[in-house]
Write a structure and sequence with these properties.
binds adenosine monophosphate, 15% strand, alpha/beta, globular
Length: 216
């Protein structure tokens, strides 16, 4: 099964994608993580992406699409995959459909995690991420057991440079202008499932697992 996770920045896509991929045993492909890994290794792609990420803008489609389609050719994506943060534009969604169709595959379900804007700003402002395994924490809602350390792997927690107030507002604007049309794109294809993301992480996970098991 190929799953696409949709939601504004801070909606909890990454957290749920992480939990679901573990539970379902499928690969979790997060476009933002791929860009950050490239940036850490100072690759040409990472340096190019950095300029856009710092401003909260989208990396151009041709660059992003090339990176994701390459990643999808890896053998761990043969049977199924869970895409988190991609597609983010209608152009990306259409190319993904074409690429899957060429391999006799398709997007089977698009999950939209809906969270009100006020909650998103609060969530992103207090977010800490593990540098090693990308697990996500929140200073008040889901703090780590030991300050600054990941519960899962002991890695160092950091605040993403694009989780600053101005950049957060730009990222949300970009989501509502450029990414939200994809919600209708998948709705028209009868593939959209919308869940209320303003709830406890475990509750959302339970809902999603039951939706996915019905779909399988
Ligand atoms: P994320 O970790 O998903 O919040 O992504 C962080 C940043 O990476 C975004 O603000 C964009 O600059 C860039 N990015 C991630 N995914 C995409 C995408 N599908 N298309 C364009 N830019 C992206």
């Amino acid at each position: 099964m190929n799953i696409v996770m949709l939601g504004a920045p801070g909606a909890g896509k990454g957290t749920q994608a992480d939990l679901l991929s573990e539970e379902l045993g499928c690969s979790h492909i997060a476009s933002g993580d791929l860009f950050r890994q490239n940036l850490e290794k100072k690759t040409e792609l990472g340096i190019l992406a950095q300029a856009y990420m710092q401003k909260g803008e989208l990396v151009p489609d041709e660059v992003t699409i090339k990176m994701i389609l390459e990643r999808l050719t890896a053998s761990d994506c043969d049977a199924s995959c869970l895409l988190d943060g991609f597609p983010r534009t209608l152009g990306q969604a259409r190319v993904l459909d074409e690429a899957f169709a060429a391999q006799g595959k398709s997007v089977d379900i698009a999950i939209y995690i809906n969270v009100p804007s006020e909650s998103l700003v609060k969530r992103l402002g207090g977010r800490w991420v593990c540098r090693n395994c990308q697990a996500v924490y929140h200073i008040t809602a889901s703090p780590p057991k030991v300050k600054g350390k990941c519960d899962r792997c002991g890695g160092e927690l950091y605040q993403r440079p694009d989780d600053k107030e101005d950049t957060i507002r730009e990222r949300l604007k970009v989501f509502f202008e450029q990414t939200s049309p994809i919600i209708d794109y998948y709705r028209e294809q009868g593939k959209l499932v919308e869940v209320d993301g303003d709830r406890d992480i475990e509750e959302i996970k339970k809902d999603l697992l039951s939706i996915l098991s019905e779909k399988q």
